[in-house]
Amino acid sequence: MTQQRDSADRKPRGKGPKRPRKPKVDPFSIGELEITDYKDVKMLRRFVSDTGKILPRRRTGLSAKHQRRIAQTIKIARQLALLPYTEKLVRK
User: pTM for this structure?
Assistant: First the structure.
């Protein structure tokens, strides 16, 4: 006969130390950056990963409106060959 455990008997599994996360601030909202042009490759590189993917909002801290504008601007820069579609092939 097997004994059944209640959920109160089990220990919660910790995924590591709980640290308060620093809230991300939208650099376009505070005026630090401007989405002015697709030609500003240096600014656009901040929002592209090392493999060439557009970074998600949870990594960049952008608002939904600015994330959509950045994505469109990056795609235009890729079409004009200012930014590559992929940086390098990563295989292990």
Answer: 0.70
